[in-house]
Amino acid sequence: MRVEESVDIAVPPERVWDLVADPENDPRWCDKVQSVEAIAPGRWRVMHKPLPFRPPVELLVEHDVLEPPRRLTMREEDDGSTFVVEYRLAATAAGTRFTQTSEFEWKRMPRLLQRLLAPGVRRDVRRQLRAVRRLLEAGGAPA
User: Fold this and answer.
1) What pLDDT score does 142 carry?
2) Residues 132, 28: contact at Cβ < 8 Å?
């Protein structure tokens, strides 16, 4: 399955990049992320809560392609799913057009549930992009 969403942010691409390219900043803009631990260069262990009413799970995140400040791809995998995520940042007259594309598959979920949960992935991506915009436009910067 594939989800692609974009948001315009009134800050330069370098500021957006500084926030989103470092997974250790994720708890600041992704409410499902509880903690992030660097485990090797370009690799992180993330505790996140992908489903309501379920305990947190470990997600492994690995950067694949880094082209600062315009493109980042990464692989995210937990016991239930695999995501290949791409961030694209394009300078605009007003700041940055930030696009997230996620290609994902669930490992052991029945197809009916997959179709029911897919719109939730799109909602999550939209919510995260809005959170990035709010944080940066309010003057927030990476910690």
Assistant:
1) 59
2) no
pLDDT per residue as tens digits for the range 112-132: 666 666 777 889 999 999 999
Beta-bridge mates of residue 63: 74
Interaxial angle between packed helices 111-137 and 13-20, expressed in degrees from 0 to 180 and rounded to the nearest 10: 130
Classified as helix, coil or strand, 127 is helix
User: What is the value of pTM for the model shown?
Assistant: 0.89
Single out the residue of 9, 6, 22 nearest to residue 134, CA to CA: 9
Give alpha helix (H) positions in 1-143. Answer: 13-20, 111-137
| Spatial separation of the C-alpha atoms in residues 106 and 15, rounded to whole Å | 33
Any idea which residue has 């485990």 for tokens?
Answer: 39
Q: What's 2-137's CATH class?
A: alpha beta
Q: Please state the domain extents for the chain.
A: 2-137
Encoded tokens for 64: 């694949």
The predicted-structure confidence for 16-48, as pLDDT tens digits, reads as follows 999 999 999 999 999 999 999 999 999 999 999
The conformational region for residue 57 under phi > 0 = left, psi -120 to 50 = alpha, else beta, is beta
